[in-house]
From TrEMBL:
GO terms for molecular function: flavin adenine dinucleotide binding; tRNA binding; tRNA dihydrouridine synthase activity. The keyword Cell division does not apply. The gene is dusB. This is tRNA-dihydrouridine synthase. It comes from Ruminococcus bovis. PROSITE patterns: UPF0034 (PS01136). It comes from the Bacteria.
Length: 323
């Protein structure tokens, strides 16, 4: 599959997830075969006002490529300027956020709120496509609510205005992440578009990935929450789709080793103080399924140094060995 001129080799991409899909996690998922990665969403207004944080979110490494920078906002010119600014970080593509359900984003006319103004969606895509010489993709939802399911209209408009691919999450904004996810709508959009359509929503296993492919006919899939504490899911999906077999799950020791590797990288990139604090939620995700995970959750939430992380890992292993 190609997105513009970018050849995509594997079957599942890592979704952009605010506060989660940082550089360390993106690199890790790429090492397990994520087809491409996307940064956490970056505010176009933040870039306009020279926000240091916005610029930091755009930093990419060679280990996570192909990789895109996702921007959000609701002003075509500001979005185009943000895309131009992003080019200094050498992204492989620019992704436009039209799907974030968070009130602080969609409540200000950006993210999923854009689904309510299809014409504006087209104008934003047109401006961004005109401003950069790399592919532009769009991440969207099926609509704002059950009374305004218009993703086919919006997807058609963004294609007409130059988008190179559409990633569609089969839920409305009002649903957030509640079930059910609508795969039929992904199938419908795929049948009408000529650009690649990437199916997204509730893929947390290789078997589900295959079902989504078969049900929708989508060009590839996007994995978000299913990869949290579970980056090897990409390898499982790739192998299952190619061979029909799923590789063995990592052992508890391997799982904890991968967790430590990710958190050490977070500390390397952000400093130990910030890296450890931002890693706490990841620790909880990795510990899911371990004996005593509920009681360890509180301890994980108070980890404040790498030394404490190593001690926690040893405690988990001891509990596992003695169970």
């Amino acid at each position: 599959m190609k997105i513009g001129n970018i050849e995509i080799k594997n079957s599942a991409a890592l979704a952009p997830m605010a506060g989660v899909a940082d550089c360390a996690f993106r690199e890790l998922c790429a090492s397990y075969g994520a087809a491409y990665t996307v940064t956490e969403m970056v505010s176009s207004k933040g870039i306009h006002y020279n926000s240091k944080k916005s610029a930091e979110l755009m930093e990419l490494t060679d280990k996570e490529r192909p990789s895109g920078i996702q921007i959000f906002g609701n002003e075509p010119k500001t979005m185009a300027d943000a895309a131009v600014f992003a080019m200094q970080f050498k992204p492989d593509f620019i992704d436009i956020n039209m799907g974030c359900p968070a009130p602080k984003i969609s409540g200000n006319g950006a993210g999923a709120s854009l689904m309510k103004t299809p014409k504006l969606c087209g104008e934003i895509v047109k401006e961004v496509v005109s401003a950069v010489d790399i592919p532009v993709t769009v991440k969207m939802r099926k609509g704002w609510d059950d009374d305004s399911i218009n993703c086919l209209e919006v997807a058609t408009i963004v294609e007409e205005n130059g988008a190179s691919a559409v990633a569609l999450h089969g839920r409305t904004r009002q649903q957030y992440y509640k079930p059910p996810v609508d795969w039929d709508i992904i199938k419908e959009v795929k049948s009408h578009l000529t650009i690649p359509v990437i199916g997204n929503g509730d893929v947390n296993s290789a078997e589900k990935a295959k079902k989504l492919y078969e049900h929708t006919g989508c060009d590839m899939i996007m994995v978000g929450r299913g990869a949290l504490g579970n980056p090897w899911l990409f390898d499982e999906i790739n192998q299952y789709l190619k061979t029909g077999t799923i590789p063995p799950k990592p052992t508890p020791e391997e799982k904890l080793s991968v967790m430590v590797k990710q958190i050490e990288r977070m500390c390397e990139l952000k400093g130990e103080y910030l890296g450890i604090r931002q890693s706490r939620k990841h620790i909880v995700w990795y510990l899911k399924g371990f004996r005593g995970a509920a009681s360890l959750r509180n301890e994980a939430g108070h980890t404040s140094s790498l030394e404490e992380l190593y001690a926690l890992v040893q405690k988990v292993l001891d509990m596992h060995i003695n169970s």
